Structures are given as C-alpha cells and as structure tokens.
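Lab notebook page, bench 4
Experiment: in silico fold of construct C2
Operator: M.H.
Input chain length: 150 residues
Purpose: comparison with the prior construct
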Amino acid sequence: MTPEHRRYLVVETLISVVINSAISFGFAWLMFHTSSAIPAQALIVDSIPQSFMIALMSVVVPGLLTSRKLAAGQIAPLPGKAVRYPLAVRAIAAALAAVLCGSLLHLAVLAAGALDPIGFTTLLAVKVVYGAGLAAIVTPLMLRYALKAW
C-alpha cells in the first residue's frame, strides 16, 4: 500500500467517523431526548438499526466515491486480486455482521445491569462513541476491498 493509499484511507475514515458520530448523536437525541433515564434494553434494541445503518453507510458512500475516483484515475487501485462481490452485497453483509456483533457487544456490556437505567447524557455519549468506533472499523476495511475492485 502506497502512502497515497494510506492517506486516502485515513481521510475517508475520518470523514466517515465524523459523519456517523453526528448521525448517531442526532438519532439518539430524537429518540430519547424526552427521557431522563433510559432502560438498558432500549439501548440494546436501538443498537440494531444503528449498527445496520452505520455499517451500511460506511460501506456504500465511501465505496461509491472510491469507485468514481478509480474510474476517473484519481487514485490507483491496490494491487492484488479484484473483489468479486458487488458493493451492495458487501454493504449488506457488513451491515448484518455489524448487527450481530454490535448486539452481542451491547448485550454483554449492559447485561450486567450496572448501567440500568442509563442517563440521557450517558446514552448520547455511548451512541456517539459506538457510531464512531463502528465507522472506524468498517470504513477502512471495506475501502481496501473497494480499492481492489478494478
């Protein structure tokens, strides 16, 4: 991987992290702003659509942008065997994997009951950190695949 590829992965990942953090904050605020104490079960259930959408968007948007840049010759493809799965398949597979892993993570952390109920500001922080972390994991991984798609 060249320095140009590394820089591209870092920049696109940072953009994804910032956008997904903001989206996570916004949706958490919309869903829970009227509550001062949120049951842990609500956070576990809410992790399902959050995990799905953050992972999906962390694959689709950077993937489409990368495809355009590759087609325009603005970035060189990574050497190696090309990916044979279309972007939609990679995005849905990543989103489903994120739902499974994210749900298990939320369940394991919150099942202990130490955070039940969760205060609104704590919930916002958890949602933002989780959204950022998920984007930071999914985006560079899937960008590497997208860079080999040509």
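Observations: The mean pLDDT is 90. The CA atoms of residues 106 and 133 lie 13 Å apart.
Next step: discuss at group meeting.
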